[in-house]
Structure of Leucine-rich repeat-containing protein 17-like:
Amino acid sequence: MRVTASLLFASLLLLLLPSIEMRRPGKGRGLKGARHKLARDRVRGVGRHGRSPPSCSESVEAGDVFVDCQGRRLNAIPDSKTWSQEPKHLLFARNRIKVLRNGAFLGYEGLTSLDLQQNQISLVEEGAFEGLTQLTTLLLQHNQLGTLSEEALIPIPNLRYLRLYDNPWICLCGMESLIRTLQVPSNRHIGNYAKCAEPTRLKNIRLKQINPELLCQEPDPTSNQTDPAKPLEPSSIRGKSDATVVCHTYLFPEVRMDCSNRGLTEVPAGIPEDVVHVDLSHNEIRHLKAKSFNGARSLRMLNLSHNRMEHLDTGSMSGLLHLRELDLSDNGLHFIQHGVLEDLYFLSKLRLGGNPWMCDYSIHYMVYWLRLHPAVRHSGLQCHAPLQHVGESVEEYVHSYNRGCPKDRLHNRVNEDQTNTAQELQAELEEELEPSHLRKPKKYEIIRLS
Ligand SMILES: *[C@@H]1O[C@H](CO)[C@@H](O)[C@H](O)[C@H]1NC(C)=O
Ligand SMILES: *[C@@H]1O[C@H](CO)[C@@H](O)[C@H](O)[C@H]1NC(C)=O
């Protein structure tokens, strides 16, 4: 008993040692380091004895400490001592913060992500992010920011993801340094989609596309050649909405986009490539067009339920090589077009209920595809028409169709071939992940449907 206890104590000590080591202020860091240390001591000296404000929750997932204060009507960042452990992720979306003061995050030096979207922030003081040296992700979209100095980002050397869209940016001289920073090619996840609201001639131009040379020039009324409105690149396709603007993005526990209930008639463009989960349910999409999910290559879960889809173009799901779960329920689908499911190698769940599946020849592709992909669990595949098959499962229908077929023997042979092909396919899957246009034609494509 005592041996165990002392062993435990020793290993605890061992665990604690490296962190103590890490927190020792670095040598030769100068004034700035000393200032950090002071701030830290001020915070830590008191000890972590407080309790969470009743409204926030603390949790640990995969070893990371999350503090979730979303939608709590808070108008300030709570003191870091409030939490029982040092948070790594601070979720502060949908609150009422208006100003981020200097030193607002002192004591939060361990943060790697900070979600401040959907507040009312209109001012970020230059020292607001002081101390956030570990931070990689900062979400400021859907706020009231008109301007932000690049100086404010200097204390965040590891920043890789910065979201700034849906703020009323005033694209004047004060924004020059920030705009230059956004345009550095290596900052490709920083400030995408953010657009100017003012001045009028720059309205709706993306910060990434403004020529910063011209922001701080005196406007020359005699010339209209040096118009900063002239985009550096061709401007984006009009008409289609940007996913990052119409949908809400959440980063934890996975990158998720909520685009549900937005009256969308098509899939919004520009779903970022790191998004894992997209919810497009309860919209008005009738026709899923080819390349709808172009670039969304990390997608694992796609919810298209409760739309009005009658037709899915052959290439509409192309590129979704990692999709695990697809919900097509409660739409107007009669059948699935040949080839639609071609790229969905790793699909494991498919919801099909609530569609008027038509049990005639057009449904066979769906059933063959399911046979070739025995790992896919599906639900809701029931004949809705014609009358003699209503209520029957679609697979039963195809089975009885084949039984009735005079070329029964031929069909049995095809079936054996399918078993082999399924195994070969499995083997191919393990190594092959290129986009479909780079792939050589596959053996299973020979399966005859007639
Ligand atoms: C811009 O330049 C064109 C031709 O160079 C001229 O006709 C036009 O009036 C100018 N517009 C303004 C607002 O100065
Ligand atoms: C898709 O969205 C609908 C409506 O919000 C929901 O009921 C359904 O459970 C979702 N599907 C999945 C697989 O989560």
The chain has two domains: 37-214, 243-404. The chain is about 20% helix and 10% strand. The pocket of 2-acetamido-2-deoxy-beta-D-glucopyranose (ligand 1) is lined by residues 224 (CB under 6 Å). The longest helix spans residues 408-431.
